[in-house]
From TrEMBL:
UniProt entry tagged with the keyword Transmembrane: yes
Residues that span the membrane, as ranges: 12-37, 49-67, 79-98, 104-124, 145-165, 171-189, 221-238, 250-269, 290-306, 312-335, 356-372, 378-398
Coiled coil: none
Pfam families hit by this protein: MFS_1
Keyword annotations: Membrane, Transmembrane, Transmembrane helix
GO molecular function: transmembrane transporter activity
Protein name: MFS transporter
């Protein structure tokens, strides 16, 4: 972790950028707590809850395409500011959802943050590649994983505490306040560290093809897809577990929705993953594709037990351990993407990998929506996971023949 602190100390602009993404994500996460809490209170069906995952995924796939076009034309921070403004305006949607008790509009609420994350993806990855050197990519991948995880942990953790205390509108006000703070930070960073527009070689990029990848670059491209294949069924179906358990009551008077507690435990595991990785470093063994597949198979086995066990506290512990493993792999995939692709390549191949990964999430969520209408969430999870495990082995063998 010393490398992480050293990098942030010597790159104040990146420290503030990380803080701004953390604050923005916490605001969105609080609103997500509101959405899932309201969906459960309105007694949304399993398919309606899984449909939320579908909304997020499809909007992200579409936004990634337009985000690439924006990155080629505009400066990164102009895109960041525009997206944060869009996120602020998008808070009008949950106002309407609350007024009408609309399950549909609560689902649509999570669409705007997903669009924004897709629009800034290429701009952010290219900004990092353009401003840092190879030795910086390991601590940066750990920082990004911690931010990604802390968003869920802090946002959901705060949401757990205040959900039964504050009225729903207070969540939206707080999200809006954080968006305003983030906009101020973005303007501050532009003055602290002026960044020129990144010049891409569009002619070179037009000749790129996934089919031409081989060796370490193919492995780098495939790794996020393996991660998505292993975790997508769990992400789509985990919220349905919240309906199986009553609220959790603690001796000091705190009452927590079981569904939100599941998301919170996921966040704990996601934060611990990169911290563990920061202690051991990204070694040659950890970057081995076979090791990564074994890690993700253990993840699938953990979730198989999660859908069988009837004790909520054991389930929460298993979710933590499962997501420690998944986020170790997530950090490694970020590191390999930065290390093994050039600036032009990362703008193309990271986007394609992310889009295909989201397509995997989309297929998984659609299957979940269909299956939970006819079978239990456990049966749906096992069915989709068998397909995922077959995909893991197929992709691994495909890489050997390239």
């Amino acid at each position: 972790m010393d490398k992480v602190f050293y990098l942030l100390k010597n790159n104040k602009w990146f420290l503030f950028l990380s803080i701004s993404f953390l604050l923005s994500g916490i605001g969105s996460s609080l609103t997500q707590v509101l959405v899932f809490g309201q969906l459960i209170e309105l007694k949304a069906s399993n398919s309606e809850i899984a449909f939320n995952f579908f909304f997020v995924t499809i909007s992200n796939i579409i936004a990634l395409h337009f985000g690439t076009k924006l990155a080629y034309r505009y400066r990164s921070f102009n895109i960041f500011i525009a997206c944060e403004l869009l996120s602020l305006i998008g808070l009008l949607i949950p106002f309407y959802a609350i007024a009408k008790n609309s399950i549909l509009f609560f689902n649509i609420t999570t669409l705007v943050p997903s669009i924004c994350s897709g629009l800034i993806f290429v701009s952010y990855t290219s900004l990092v590649k353009d401003n840092f050197s190879d030795e910086d990519f390991e601590p940066i991948s750990i920082i990004e994983s911690i931010i990604f995880s802390a968003v869920t942990l802090i946002g959901t953790g705060l949401g757990l505490i205040i959900y039964r205390i504050l009225p729903p509108l207070e969540f939206i006000y707080f999200d809006g306040l954080l968006s305003i703070i983030v906009l101020i930070i973005f303007v501050f960073i532009k003055n602290l560290h002026p960044i020129q527009k990144i010049e891409y070689n569009l002619e070179e990029i037009s000749n790129y093809s996934i089919l031409k990848l081989n060796g370490i670059k193919l492995q780098t491209f495939i790794l996020p897809l393996i991660l998505y294949s292993a975790t997508a069924p769990a992400m789509a179906l985990m919220p349905t577990l919240g309906k199986l358990f009553p609220d959790l009551n603690f001796t000091f008077g705190l009452t927590i929705s079981a569904g939100i507690a599941l998301i919170f435990s996921r966040g704990i595991g996601q934060v611990l993953g990169p911290i563990v990785l920061g202690k051991i470093g990204i070694t040659k063994n950890l970057k081995n594709e076979k090791t990564i597949i074994y890690i993700l198979l253990i993840f699938i086995v953990f979730y198989s037990f999660i859908f069988l066990i009837k004790n909520i506290y054991i389930i929460l512990c298993l979710i933590i351990f499962a997501h420690i493993l998944s986020n170790i792999v997530f950090s490694i995939s970020l590191y390999m993407m930065y290390s093994n692709f050039s600036e032009n390549e990362i703008s193309y191949f990271s986007t394609k990998s992310y889009q295909i990964g989201n397509f995997i999430l989309l297929i998984s969520s659609l299957l979940s929506i269909v299956l939970v209408k006819y079978v239990t969430p456990y049966t749906a999870y096992i069915t989709i996971s068998i397909a995922s495990m077959l995909a893991l082995f197929f992709v691994n063998n495909l890489n050997k023949f390239k």
